[in-house]
């Protein structure tokens, strides 16, 4: 099958990032541009990874910014009160009892952000069952150095903050991850001229822009012209280190999303003609 050049017009209109409409270029933007101009265009997933998780300039590395709160960029179940943490603590307590109330029970939370969920869970554990509280060891896994400092200052000796799951080993426990999976970097795909193309980020004279390359994607080609969708994140690299922490564990993943039928419904093409919020997906 011959490969045709992708028409990026709709993509540029609907998703003006990674370009800045104000003409401003951030320090991270300059850093990404410099790398692209030296080594060539990068997949959108690589751009997303740097934009979110660069150790000093990424979105989540801004330790003093209130990104997740009523006053921030978006809210989660933790932002509206302690009930969510209370319910999770009681679920963990039932799992602990069902497994014989072991004397050591480890809770691992990746992506704890500012530690609010950990605080709510631990507060409920303390009031729920002193024996469970005594057995509990709470680990927070945070790879970003600036955010680790925030967590250590807020949580003190109530938790142990680690940089990688490889630092932890436990016989029995639980993993709790609130809205982590939807923040993993993902590839972006565009249907153009009845062919799927992977979206790339390129740079010219220090300005970021879109590019593309043909993609062998296992999706039908009968979606509307200009249809854009995300591909799956690299779950293997993310999950493998977590899977080695426990010998026996309950894994709790809290997130949201669409089923396949809804996600790929042709009507969702209309999203391309609006200005999506930072939390809109697909």
Any key phrases for this structure?
five-stranded antiparallel beta sheet; elongated; 282 residues; 10 strands
Question: How would you summarize what this structure contains?
Answer:
The protein has 282 residues and is α/β, with parallel strands linked by helices. The protein has helices at residues 9-14, 27-39, 44-53, 83-98, 116-128, 130-135, 145-155, 235-243, 260-263, and strands at residues 42-43, 105-110, 136-141, 160-162, 170-178, 188-192, 195-204, 207-214, 228-230, 246-254.
Account of the protein in words:
This protein has 282 residues and is α/β, with parallel strands linked by helices. It has a domain at 77-183 and 237-260: 3-Layer(aba) Sandwich (Rossmann fold). 31% of the residues lie in helices and 22% in strands. It has 9 helices and 10 strands. It has helices at 9-14, 27-39, 44-53, 83-98, 116-128, 130-135, 145-155, 235-243, 260-263; strands at 42-43, 105-110, 136-141, 160-162, 170-178, 188-192, 195-204, 207-214, 228-230, 246-254. The strands form 2 sheets. Strands 1, 6, 7, 8 and 9 form a 5-stranded antiparallel beta sheet that branches. A 5-stranded parallel beta sheet has the order 4-3-2-5-10. A hairpin with a 2-residue loop joins strand 7 and strand 8 (207-214). The chain starts with 8 loop residues before the first helix and ends in a 19-residue tail after the last helix. The model is unreliable at 270-282 (pLDDT under 50).
């Amino acid at each position: 099958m011959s490969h045709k050049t992708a028409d990026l017009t709709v993509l540029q209109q609907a998703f003006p990032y990674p370009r800045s409409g104000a003409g401003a270029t951030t320090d991270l933007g300059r850093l990404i541009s410099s790398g692209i101009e030296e080594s060539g265009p990068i997949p959108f997933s690589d751009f997303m990874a740097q934009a979110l998780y660069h150790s000093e300039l990424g979105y989540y590395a801004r330790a003093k910014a209130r990104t997740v709160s009523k006053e921030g960029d978006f809210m989660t179940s933790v932002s509206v009160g302690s009930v969510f943490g209370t319910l999770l603590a009681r679920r963990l307590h039932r799992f602990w009892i069902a497994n014989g109330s072991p004397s050591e029970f480890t809770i691992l939370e990746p992506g704890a952000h500012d530690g609010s969920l950990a605080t709510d869970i631990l507060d409920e554990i303390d009031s729920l069952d002193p024996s469970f509280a005594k057995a509990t060891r709470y680990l927070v896994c945070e790879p970003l150095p600036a955010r680790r400092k925030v967590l250590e200052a807020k949580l003190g000796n109530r938790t142990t903050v680690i940089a990688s799951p490889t630092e932890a080993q436990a016989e029995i426990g639980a993993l709790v991850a609130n809205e982590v999976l939807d923040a993993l970097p993902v590839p972006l795909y565009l249907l153009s001229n009845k062919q799927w193309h992977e979206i790339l980020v390129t740079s010219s004279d220090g300005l970021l822009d879109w590019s593309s390359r043909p993609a062998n994607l296992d999706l039908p080609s009968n979606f509307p012209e200009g249809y854009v969708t995300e591909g799956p994140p690299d779950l293997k690299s993310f999950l493998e280190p977590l899977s080695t922490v426990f010998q026996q564990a309950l894994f709790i993943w809290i997130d949201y999303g669409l089923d396949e039928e809804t996600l790929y419904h042709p009507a969702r093409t209309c999203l391309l003609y609006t200005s999506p919020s930072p939390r809109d997906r697909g």
